[in-house]
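Let us begin with a simple case.
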Amino acid sequence: SDCSTVNGVSQIHADILRKQTFKDYYALAPERFLGITNGITHRRWLMQSNPELSDLLDEAIGQAWRKDAERLSDLTPLADDAAFRERFAAIKLHNKERMARMIREHQGTIITPDTMFDVQAKRLHEYKRQLLNALAILILYNRIADNPNYEITPRTYIFGAKASPAYYRAKLIIKLLGNLGELIDKHPRARKMMKVVFLENYCVSAAEVLIPAADVSEQLSTAGKEASGTGNMKFMMNGAVTVGTMDGANCEIHDAVGDDNIFIFGLRADEVEEGYSKYRASEIYETNPSIRRAMDQLINGELCPENHQLFQELYHALLFGDNGGMADPYFVLKDLPSFLSTQRRVGEAYLDRDKWLKMAVINTAKSGIFAADRTIAEYNEKIWHLEPLEL
């Protein structure tokens, strides 16, 4: 009751605080509840991390955006300028080449810059659903392995993450990603279309190279679980196109760029809440052959011939739950068909070069509202009421 203000760090987060977490308190003092969305500093995540793009923006729209990030919106008309799009694309390719050099130098792994760079970079946690991504990749691998005529848009899947030291299951997902990459590399056709790379010792310095290189930004949290996210903003600002659930700041990215410049999939937050009493993961397993096969590969030795039981815990958690708890509490199997369908659309869109580049430019142009300057100004206007300093 002594709290003057309760803030949700995205609009959906603010709604969850009002309707669920602090429902009783909100009924007593609704005026104390705000929704001020998180932000990122464009000085680091664009000006410092992506100097080539920053110079192009200066040339195209002037330097006002450097002090007022919302002026990035001046870029919007240039999405329809073919010459500008080509220069934008050339910079993206240079950044991908820079990323490829870093991976080769640090890990000895060779990746191809002319493939789509599909990136999921965030803390390793079950609700962020790196496991959803891994199972989707495994299903695509199976389709390639089964059908000599099946092809996908060539992709390099890049994962950047760290897990808490005692979080065994998160560590197991990292191991799964490594073994999945090895499985793909052994297949003569699959390795021409797919590559899985897990970045060693992911850190801010690595992120400054990775984020400008991304074509696709994977934001896969179970709807209602991510307060805001800021990686989604960093990728967007650098011209990556988001694949995501309607969760955290993804919702506001969707509002900013529109339906045509983002790929939304999966359950909404209210459907997740309803699903806690109705969802049965075993029904997905029993009725979807592609998912059933991928699940079985967790325990049949295909992914770990030397230890068939290594990934049994992941299998068990998805189908049976822990200690009597709900199976698949983060709705991985439930959202997997929607995710696979959406990824097919992503691959098709990437092959349409003009369409994809327009989407990428629009994402950069609409990213200014996610600058931390806006966030801080909003906090001051609504909560702190401090006099600004003139520097």
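The second case is a distinct protein. As before, the sequence precedes its structure tokens.
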Amino acid sequence: RSTAMPKYVYKAKTEEGEKISGQMQAMDENDLHLKLRQENKYLISAKRAEEVQRIHKIKAKYLSEFCRQIGTLSASGVSLVRALNIIAQDESNKKNEKTAYENILRQVRQGKALSEAMEDQDEAFPELLINMVRSAETAGNLDETSMRMADYYDKQFRMHSKISNATLYPKILSFVIVVVVIFMLGYILPQFQDLFAQMEELPLPTKILFAMSDGVKEHWLMLLILLAILVPLLMFVAHIPKVRLQLDQMKLHTPIFGKLLKIVYTARFARTISSLYASGIPIVQALQIARKTIGNTYIDSQFDEAVAKIRTGGNLSDALDAVDGFTKKLTSAVRVGEETGSLDSMLNSIADSMEFESNMAIDKMVATLEPVLIVVMAIIVGFIMVSVLMPIYGSYDAISNSGY
């Protein structure tokens, strides 16, 4: 009785060295290897399709814990396999992280390098960490590099937490504004409708307000459906590469916030390039990795030209100086480091300095945003109050005038 051949999900390399992935039916991994060789492809790894489990990106908090455990255990003389086994068996691991760690352990036991095993875990581990581990394997300082990356991701986690906590109040305030407006338009204003209906002429603000109130009251379901369609649509449009590029450029040139965002982006880049350069990764490769950690596609898009300048013999400081989106403090520090031959220590110093300034910038952005939202809320509520009171005071004036 014939049975269908199992399907394998594989990763392979072409003769040009390009990494590719795909699916193919084969009797076993040896058969898959032979079939790929006929297509001039070289098998890197393979799993049966039914065994493949999607692994999502690991958050900075768990990356920090992973790196710290690798660094601590390696420095204590524990073998890599045993260290990975300890990490994989930790009961505090989430399902996603546990799957990734178990896969790495299994592949390292089979003779794979740690960096290669991490690279095989879909998008679980960032390119930065994979390259840092690969460099450490070559230099033989996995413990030191792991501890450095543990600090790096711990700082990244703290930064994200700070931004999240700092923006919580403005988010709540924005939600309150929307709720108050809907409540007043949909419930409070209709209470005055009978009173105002008896008046011959209403002021323009009152007419506008009641038109909005009628719209909310009569078409609330349609407005909800429209909102449910509009929000995802706007999010989709915002993620279109060309649109996102324009939005990211606009962010950098908005009053007050643009200058503060430049400090945040510069801090991210400075810390990443400092860690990469200190680990001995070539500056061109370090730039290609660091550009992806900035979080702004407009700044990222300028790095092709910056990398080209360095490849033709240009200085790092001149290349970064031409990038719109970084503070001049970064390029000045890099230039001093190049002139004194202490670029590594200068990069580390500017990274520490920019991280402090980044924390201050986040605090300043929140401190600026909160009163702006309060003013917006006051204007909206004030407009509603004035629109309601204008015809009432107008009717009082008419009554008092008619008495004379």
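Strands lie at 7-14, 19-25, 41-48. The chain has a mean pLDDT of 84.
Keep these points in mind for the review questions at the end of the chapter.
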